[in-house]
UniProtKB/TrEMBL annotation:
Coiled coil: none annotated. It comes from Hydrocarboniphaga effusa AP103. InterPro entries: Acyl_CoA_acyltransferase (IPR016181), GNAT_dom (IPR000182), N-acetyltransferase (IPR051531). GO terms for molecular function: acyltransferase activity, transferring groups other than amino-acyl groups. It comes from the Bacteria. The lineage of its organism: Bacteria, Pseudomonadati, Pseudomonadota, Gammaproteobacteria, Nevskiales. PROSITE patterns: GNAT (PS51186). Residues 13-176 form the N-acetyltransferase domain. This is N-acetyltransferase domain-containing protein. Pfam families: Acetyltransf_3 (PF13302). Gene3D superfamilies: 3.40.630.30.
Length: 183
């Protein structure tokens, strides 16, 4: 099966796989207190390296078709952050998500690529359901998820996120999402 970097492009964005060469910019992104405000706070360079090796690079082989990818502006080639379609850590559900540099905020990039990843997950991977989680106070991210076609369905707790605090839970079944998107 092709990986999303081979098949997922939008009008303005493209995905590509992470490599070890992405550590520098990923460290910068993960160290930004504003970017990481709702994602358990800034990460150390060591924690980012561990994330790159385990949660990103190794994950590609362990879960073909899923992962976290570098999000690039097609016109400029500039890295704007990352998008993901992967398991919630330690759990079975597959989630869609994103982490963008502040310079990419407010441009619709999170929604644009999230919609493309939902389409990919539902049509190419045949996932029956895709979910998302976000901090209860992160209303901007909640709006992105709603615009992407997910529905808010209460709150959930996960040991690996937000120290087990409740998170906003979004989900959507493939049949419902696809029916809503198709003419």
């Amino acid at each position: 099966m092709k990986n999303p970097a081979d098949i997922i492009e939008t009008e303005r964005l493209a995905l590509r796989r992470f490599t070890r060469d992405d550590l520098l910019w990923l460290t910068e992104l993960n160290a930004d207190p504003e970017v990481m405000r709702y994602i358990d706070g800034p990460m150390s360079p060591e924690a980012t390296k561990d994330m790159l090796e385990g949660r990103i690079l190794r994950y590609y082989d362990e879960h073909p078709g899923l992962g976290m990818w570098v999000t690039v502006e097609r016109g400029s080639g500039r890295i704007v952050g990352s998008h993901l379609l992967n398991h919630i850590r330690g759990e079975a559900p597959i989630q869609v998500g994103y982490r963008l540099f502040k310079s990419a905020w407010g441009k619709g990039y999170a929604t644009e690529m999230s919609v493309a990843l939902l389409e990919y997950g539902f049509t190419q991977l045949k996932l029956p359901t895709i979910v998302a989680i976000t901090d209860l106070d992160n209303t901007r991210s909640q709006q992105v998820l709603l615009k992407s076609g997910l529905h808010r369905n209460g709150e959930r707790r996960f040991a690996a996120y937000s120290n087990g605090a409740p998170l906003a839970w979004f989900e959507r079944a493939a049949a419902d999402w696809l029916a809503e998107r198709r003419p």
